[in-house]
């Protein structure tokens, strides 16, 4: 932030909202109302609270969020589209003492990268995956994603996604939870203050299980893409609430720290 | 051959397959991670690594595919780790995107291709059909791999050490291009221990957490105006500098009228043919490129300037011959004999082509 | 007791903050920032109603809002 | 070319030609020579026959693949049909006359017929026919010293079966003697 | 250009992007299936196909990846169907295994590559960095694609028709290699309707159930002794026969002292530069290869024999120039100017290199 | 079969076991006791009983069974390793009037081809997949597969598969059943006469749903690979019974013709 | 009433058939076929016990067994 | 080169330069000429400015990308800064003097200043400033007949908005007249 006198604190004042240092102080390239910004901030807060910023390696994936490395001040590498879990596997096997995470969109993770995420999960790689599901390919201009809802119009299903032709939207948090090496899998949403608070806890947990060496940590974040949904940000949040959450139920699908024992 | 040789003093020979020599060489070179997916004729490499690496304190991962293997390699490289993947032709095709990314983001790693017959599923016999893919770039964009071509089991070992050294010296992926012959044959190999990899290797760029310094970024996306052009200029300058690493074996070239150019297994088979013809008094010699990129073009050009004629022999339909011709263009041309992939080559097969070329223009 | 500061150059005018303020005091201003976005604001006279709950800051995708509380009011808002 | 020898050894899958190929190669190596060994490679592997090629030389070895070998060890009939035509004029072939019709040997080559199975049987185990044949081969070609071959047995027979080494050495010797 | 032209009589021009012309051309050529995965700068193609194909009674599938796209193409080809996939550089790298399989099992299909800057993720601007990958074989083994390089939106349309015809004529995959310029620019295009695809196309090899005949098998595995060599000989003979399809635009070559060789968008930009230099009295002409494989080498060789000099201009670090040099070797050499991927080329950029080459040896 | 007088039927005799015509009369290249032969025969019987032999296209995958086209007299195409479901998608979209099936091993389908099979299933491609799970890479000499059991030794997990390092064996029939476009998913076994009879019914159902246009049909067949398990065929069958079936329970995991309605 | 025919050149001697015969009449012969496999058989004197149940044929991976029943015995065995 | 004209049109994202670029190209095509249109392509797209290049010629067109254009339509200040230096000596630029400081026009080029926003405002909609500028451009260069441009409006304005066509034609005319 630029120096701003309004931010000078009076003696009896204090900040009621801390911006993590690891979040780089620069404007993002995201569209107005895009939730990647929120997701970035949650990751930043968690890394800082865990005290692992200096030991973290970020694997950026290809999508609107490829530039995450411009916003998070951590060592980063860019993975080919969909392959971030394989790249993260390589990083982690090379440096088992580091915290390694990927940040991936739904096209990246659930379409082209489905085999890589599932096998990394199944092997129980000690990595964390932050999965931003906005039901569309943001970066390339709004094509259908595996998570596109039935009836949703995109540039490659102009009549709306049709179950008969394109199949049902894939529920990743559930699928991942079913795999052997997974320590934590949850779905949260970024559409409301309450859900954002819950999302933060889920992100934290997905990193905690890595740090504790329990297995693979996965968190799916339902997010808005106002641009490609062709609606304003406020409507986009309503859509998450009314259309996405009913199909993609929020919750924890697997948590080995509660019950199932060490993975 | 590698620049950090430290002989252990006991030159005991072990009798192993080329594939095993690859694995031994990698371990000697300090390889800490192996990622790979089974495919004939190189399975001895992952199999050996799967039991040897964990003992050596390293990590073996059987990847879900060659796409994943290559990307795991990219990840380990980003962490500054000496890592290896190996495969054979179809599997190598699947790695092309990741290889282009590694080259573009300047990540070192070693990729072994035990070339088999193609195209498609082809067969599991030897072939040199992947020369173009290795040397011209099977992936997209302007990039180069350093490509080493072993012809003996000892070279399999030695070149692995060299491959890791070169990969980190230039921050570039290195391909070791063998075939089913050199991979499956056994020869005595003298193992040797190169100097330990210094802890400072990659220390100024590897990812390890940004403690006390600015975060590092390893990427191949360059969107800002002119940035990609800048990166390409930088890469081209690096590739030009690599020319210093070009290497070839010369055999009886001095008095030769005809120079046979052949690499890898075909190079050694050609050597047998040349021995036979020498015994009959024919003045023929051999240049066997040990590096395919950088290509030993200046050496060939020098020989061309001495007035020698050329015959390129490959186990494919004509690939390296283009580089030979380009190297000596303006002076002389190279004849070509291509042994078809799908047929096992022997030195007798090369006699007639060599005699033809001796007689020819 | 509490106040919010909008960092105009980060605000993209998405108006998500306006939907979560329990006091309903955040509105779109008529100002454009350098990126051409019409930024959000709390009109000066409404600021006194701010509880410092930080809901607006939590939902802002562009980290454009700072929330400041006086120490007495501390317990309520902080996450 | 002070010393150069190449050989193709061929037989049924169970006859142990790969083993004696390796053994000869080890012996060559232990004698300080250069050697190459290459198994047939490819779809043939799944069939019932097996063969391998060994080259021994005091120079560096060019081709490990030999189209017209200088010598053969032929353990069964199909192998004779397949490889005898390829043998160099004046080359040496050791025939396992227990299973191969030695009368089919061509005059243009030198043939050493050894009833390897029978000899091995007498020694107590038909499975050692391969060793008998190799012993005969060593005598016929003189490529390496038999003692070196015997010493090299430890390299190809795993520790688990080391008690069989003396018997195998006997079989080598028996073949060697028979070819004498 | 295609051999089965049937003009509709109404040459009305439509004003469309090159990408759209690709889609229109494919539909006109009888393309019945599209398989693809989004990537900039060619998304107009799948987007247009997604709404146009179902109406045309065809099938549009957004594949899960380019690996899958290419394999779906292989499947549709096996059924004897005219099918298309399109992508850009990184996506094309992922198709290399399937492309090698298609070539090896002689399956026809059309692949569009709207070449972007590389290596790696590179950028989304135009580039010709994928020439080697397209022409020499990015996949494994000895195989060739027919490669067509459109420079105008009309050619985008026309070459799609040609591409499908060639694919089925030779039972071989065909690549249409454009870039972000020809894909994103708009020009008037005169659509035309080629003769309908005859129902007998592929009738003697396509898979459709073995009713009343022996089962058919489309494969690239050849394990029996000599079988793979036989297949490779057959393929090489086919590739030699393809030479008849070589095509290039010649512009002011007759009296030219210097021939600029450039393809695709760079070819047309070079044309502007040549017009400027001609206006200043410089005798320079252009050969713009429209087929990259087969390469119009004989045409160039003919010009070389006339004593002309050569300059190859590419939007990469030097790829096609090798084919130019090989074509005219023994007569003359070609100079080279490579415009760096990552920088937008304009005709002014080419003036100095051309003048240099005019002055040069 | 060569003419064999023993096969001449007396007047009162008849064949009690019919060999389908579509099964080519030649010896297979499979190892003694390998179950690929049984699986081939079941497919042949089903195609013949359905009367679709002349309308069937087989997509062969890469594994020991790549040569299926030498044994089934139907039009066939060879897919690259793991990509048979994508190839089959292309064939079927090109010829929607044909019966299209793939025949894949566990390395092929569950490892390298995981994304392809899951997306074809999710799209509800009208194809059938016969999945032969023998917990190992047969063709390449016995390396670990995603389905290799915990503790099982292979050439790339010489100490036995370890949950912590390589994760748990993947259960494909269950995962496939969870996807939207799937009409039928079941697991059967080829180790006993009873199980073979049940397997035949499952294979039939997996083809039926395709013919009826209901969606994707999937059948997993637990099979033996005596060679790479390094045991004889009889022991291999015992292993299936005692070790595989407990981890890979037999049964129907999804069947839209019973209950769930048209997919 | 029933009998089985083993096609020696297809049999690979895996012995799976021997494990499923309810009558236990299938055994390994001492014959090798041309592929070198020791084939299975029902000794001539045991054949009378064959019920024609076809279990052996069903489990044979190499389709090496043919089962023949006399018409009377039909109902029992056929799948 | 009987007829050849190229132009870069540049402005803010919302000013509709792509629309008038397309319109001019359509008009050229409808006048029977060859035309090319290319938008800027690349990361700039996401920023606030936009530009495109149109070439009109009666010969086949070489480069669609123009480094030193013969003419410009400059809708805002940043575009003047960026493109005026590239304009050919003696080239023509139409400046939207409502938003651009016309005093910065260089003497080496011919400048037609048109207060496009103001004129459009008077016609009832500032959004038509682009049409005003194009009208002026057509007058200044004579590249195509204004009537053809007007007729081409149907090609770039979708049926849904066809009621706006007369107003746009008016704006074209107003620009044309102003440049007279
Ligand atoms: C191999 C490859 N294929 C395709 C692309 C093009 N591409 C870039 S991002 C993207 C999809 C982005 O969608 P998603 O992962 O959902 O991320 P979002 O932008 O929605 O956050 C695609 C297809 C690419 N870069 N590489
Ligand atoms: C791209 C590629 N990678 C690897 C291979 C090598 N390969 C052939 S078959 C096979 C695995 C076979 O295992 P599975 O699918 O389980 O079939 P099985 O042989 O066990 O029946 C592999 C890895 C290949 N042909 N292509
Ligand atoms: S396109 Fe969608 S995902 Fe991408 S930045 Fe804009 S709103 Fe966010
Ligand atoms: S802190 Fe709470 S009360 Fe104050 S402006 Fe923000 S949301 Fe409203
Ligand atoms: S949520 Fe943030 S970016 Fe959006 S309007 Fe409010 S302050 Fe601006
Ligand atoms: S290796 Fe295994 S799967 Fe392959 S044929 Fe032999 S038993 Fe069957
Ligand atoms: S048919 Fe039944 S009873 Fe007769 S041999 Fe076969 S298994 Fe035994
Ligand atoms: S099951 Fe078949 S192959 Fe096996 S022993 Fe019996 S008859 Fe022979
Ligand atoms: Mg998305
Ligand atoms: Mg298997």
From TrEMBL, chains A, F:
InterPro entries: 2-oxoacid:Fd_oxidoreductase (IPR051457), THDP-binding (IPR029061), TPP_enzyme_TPP-bd (IPR011766). SUPFAM superfamilies: Thiamin diphosphate-binding fold (THDP-binding). GO terms for biological process: cellular respiration; small molecule metabolic process. Keywords: Oxidoreductase. One of its GO terms (molecular function) is thiamine pyrophosphate binding. Gene3D superfamilies: 3.40.50.970. The keyword Protein transport does not apply. It comes from the Bacteria. Residues 70-206 form the Thiamine pyrophosphate enzyme TPP-binding domain. This is Thiamine pyrophosphate protein domain protein TPP-binding. It comes from Nitratidesulfovibrio vulgaris (strain DSM 19637 / Miyazaki F).
TrEMBL record, chains C, G:
Pfam families: Fer4_7. The keyword Zinc-finger does not apply. Keywords: Iron, Iron-sulfur, Metal-binding. Signal peptide: none annotated. The keyword Iron applies. Residues 2-31, 40-70 form the 4Fe-4S ferredoxin-type domain. Gene3D superfamilies: 3.30.70.20. This is 4Fe-4S dicluster domain-containing protein.
């Amino acid at each position: 932030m630029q120096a701003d006198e309004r931010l000078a604190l009076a003696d009896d004042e204090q900040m009621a909202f801390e911006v993590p240092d690891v979040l780089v102080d620069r404007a993002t390239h995201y569209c107005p109302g895009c939730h990647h910004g929120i997701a970035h901030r949650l990751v930043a807060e968690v890394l800082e609270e865990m005290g692992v910023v200096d030991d973290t390696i970020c694997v950026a994936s290809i999508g609107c969020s490829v530039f995450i490395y411009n916003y998070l001040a951590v060592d980063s590498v860019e993975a080919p589209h969909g392959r971030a879990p394989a790249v993260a596997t390589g990083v982690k096997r090379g440096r088992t003492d580091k915290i390694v995470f990927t940040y991936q969109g739904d096209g990246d993770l659930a379409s082209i990268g489905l085999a890589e995420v599932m096998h990394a999960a199944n092997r129980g790689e000690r990595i964390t995956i932050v999965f931003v599901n906005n039901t569309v390919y943001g970066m390339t201009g709004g094509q259908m994603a595996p998570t596109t809802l039935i009836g949703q119009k995109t540039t490659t299903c102009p009549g709306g996604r049709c179950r008969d032709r394109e199949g049902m939207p894939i529920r990743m948090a559930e699928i991942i939870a079913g795999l052997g090496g997974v320590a934590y899998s949850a779905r949260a949403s970024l559409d409301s203050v309450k859900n954002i608070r819950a999302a933060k806890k889920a992100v934290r947990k997905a990193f905690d299980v890595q740090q504790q060496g329990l297995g693979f940590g996965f968190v799916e974040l339902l997010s808005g893409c106002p641009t490609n949904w062709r609606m304003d940000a406020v409507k986009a949040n309503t859509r998450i609430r009314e259309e996405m959450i009913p199909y993609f139920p929020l919750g924890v699908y697997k948590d080995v720290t509660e019950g199932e024992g060490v993975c | 051959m590698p620049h950090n040789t430290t002989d252990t003093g006991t030159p005991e020979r072990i009798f192993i397959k080329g594939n095993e020599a690859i694995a031994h060489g990698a371990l000697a070179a300090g390889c800490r991670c192996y990622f790979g997916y089974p495919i004939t004729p190189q399975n001895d490499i992952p199999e050996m690594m799967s039991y040897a690496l964990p003992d050596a304190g390293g990590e073996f991962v059987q990847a879900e595919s060659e796409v994943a293997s290559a990307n795991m390699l990219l990840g380990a490289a980003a962490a500054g780790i000496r890592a290896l993947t190996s495969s054979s032709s179809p599997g190598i095709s699947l790695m092309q995107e990741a290889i282009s990314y590694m080259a573009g983001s300047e990540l070192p790693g070693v990729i072994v291709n035990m070339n088999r017959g193609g195209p498609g599923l082809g067969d599991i016999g030897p072939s040199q059909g992947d020369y173009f893919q290795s040397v011209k770039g099977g992936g997209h964009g302007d990039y180069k791999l350093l490509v080493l071509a072993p012809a003996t089991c000892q070279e399999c070992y030695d070149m692995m050490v060299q491959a890791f050294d070169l990969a980190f010296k230039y921050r570039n992926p290195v391909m070791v291009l063998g075939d089913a012959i050199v991979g499956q044959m056994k020869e005595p190999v003298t193992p040797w221990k190169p100097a330990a990899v210094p802890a400072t290797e990659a220390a100024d760029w590897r990812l390890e957490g940004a403690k006390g310094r600015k975060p590092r970024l390893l990427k191949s996306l360059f969107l800002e105006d002119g940035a990609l052009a800048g990166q390409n200029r930088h890469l081209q300058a690096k590739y030009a500098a690599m020319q210093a690493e070009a290497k070839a074996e010369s055999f009886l070239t001095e008095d030769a009228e005809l120079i046979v150019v052949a690499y890898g297994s075909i190079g050694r088979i050609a050597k047998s043919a040349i021995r036979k013809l020498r015994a009959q008094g024919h003045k023929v010699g051999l240049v066997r490129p040990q590096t395919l990129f950088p290509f030993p073009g200046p050496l060939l050009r020098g020989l061309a300037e001495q007035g020698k004629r050329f015959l390129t022999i490959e186990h494919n339909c004509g690939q390296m011959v283009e580089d030979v011709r380009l190297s000596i263009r303006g002076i002389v041309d190279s004849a070509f004999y291509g042994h078809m992939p799908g047929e096992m080559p022997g030195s007798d097969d090369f006699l007639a082509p060599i005699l033809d070329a001796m007689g020819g223009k | 007791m509490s106040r919010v500061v909008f960092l105009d150059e980060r605000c993209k005018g998405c108006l998500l903050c306006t939907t979560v303020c329990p006091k309903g005091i955040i509105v779109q201003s008529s100002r454009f920032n350098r990126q051409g976005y019409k930024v959000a604001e709390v009109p000066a006279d409404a600021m006194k109603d701010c509880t410092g709950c930080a809901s607006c800051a939590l939902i802002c995708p562009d980290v454009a809002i700072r929330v400041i509380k006086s120490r007495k009011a501390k317990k309520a808002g902080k996450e | 070319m002070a010393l150069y020898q190449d050989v193709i050894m061929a037989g049924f899958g169970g006859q142990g030609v790969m083993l004696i190929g390796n053994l000869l190669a080890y012996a060559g190596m232990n004698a300080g020579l250069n050697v190459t060994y290459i198994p047939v490679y490819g779809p043939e592997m799944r069939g019932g026959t097996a063969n391998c090629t060994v080259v021994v030389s005091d120079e560096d070895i060019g081709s490990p693949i030999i189209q017209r070998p200088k010598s053969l060890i032929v353990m069964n009939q199909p192998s004779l049909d397949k490889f005898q035509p390829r043998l160099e004029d004046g080359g040496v072939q050791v025939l396992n006359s227990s299973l191969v019709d030695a009368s089919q040997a061509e005059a243009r080559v030198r043939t050493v017929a050894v009833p390897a199975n029978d000899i091995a049987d007498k020694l107590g185990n038909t499975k050692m026919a391969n060793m008998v044949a190799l012993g005969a081969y060593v005598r016929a070609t003189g490529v390496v010293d038999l003692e070196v071959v015997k010493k090299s047995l430890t390299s190809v027979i795993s520790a688990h079966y080391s008690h069989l080494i003396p018997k195998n050495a006997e079989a080598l010797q028996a073949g060697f003697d028979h070819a004498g």
